[in-house]
């Protein structure tokens, strides 16, 4: 797999990856090149009030209105992602990553950004891999690389995203969605 093939795609954990944050996780890959890879976990809401960390942004968050744990790296930093129109100018303080996904500078006043975007999600931290690390994990069978849909970033039902992504694949991957969370209970 060439390094750039995961940018803009989803990493979906396989059932064998059953530890902590990455158990049944869906990661939107923001960047992947020869130096490593970065993404955010889309389905791990923290239940924390955004305004307690970033005053003024809470009322603009897409449902569910909470901070999400983007990954285990730099949990003391926040990353804002928005959906933008692919054919219009970007709002102030934003930079397109791919397709309709852009990153925003959270120091930009929300009222300058929000009228121009289709939704916002804020993540505490991110998931990161050093050069070659992600490729090794994919080869070991820890991750499936699947196409993303525009609605994945701002899903209103993050708790079901893992199974929804698998079910829409059809064939054998749809069966993985029914794999028990705890195989001992099977």
UniProtKB/TrEMBL annotation:
- Taxonomic superkingdom: Bacteria
- How is this protein annotated for GO cellular component? cytosol
Query: What SUPFAM superfamilies does its record include?
Result: VC0467-like (SSF143456)
InterPro entries recorded: AlgH-like
Q: Which residues cross the membrane?
A: none
Q: Name one Pfam family in it.
A: DUF179
User: Would you identify the family this protein belongs to, as annotated?
Assistant: Belongs to the UPF0301 (AlgH) family.
PANTHER family annotated for this entry? UNCHARACTERIZED PROTEIN YQGE, UPF0301 PROTEIN YQGE
Protein name in UniProt: UPF0301 protein KLO01_33090
Q: Which organism is it from?
A: Knoellia locipacati
């Amino acid at each position: 797999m060439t390094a750039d093939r995961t940018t803009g795609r989803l990493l979906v954990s396989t059932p064998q990856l059953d530890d902590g944050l990455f158990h049944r996780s869906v990661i939107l890959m923001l960047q992947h090149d020869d130096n490593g890879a970065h993404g955010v976990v889309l389905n791990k809401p923290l239940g924390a009030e955004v305004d307690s960390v970033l005053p003024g942004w809470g009322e603009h968050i897409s449902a569910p209105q909470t901070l999400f744990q983007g990954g285990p790296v730099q949990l003391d930093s926040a990353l804002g992602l928005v959906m933008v129109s692919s054919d219009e100018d970007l709002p102030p303080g934003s930079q397109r990553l791919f397709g309709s996904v852009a990153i925003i500078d959270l120091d930009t006043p929300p009222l300058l950004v929000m009228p121009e975007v289709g939704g916002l999600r804020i993540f505490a931290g991110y998931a990161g891999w050093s050069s070659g690390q992600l490729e090794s994990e994919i080869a070991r069978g820890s991750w499936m690389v699947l196409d993303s849909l525009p609605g994945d970033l701002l899903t209103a039902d993050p708790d079901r995203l893992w199974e929804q992504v698998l079910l829409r694949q059809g064939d054998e991957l749809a069966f993985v969605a029914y794999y028990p969370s705890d195989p001992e209970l099977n």
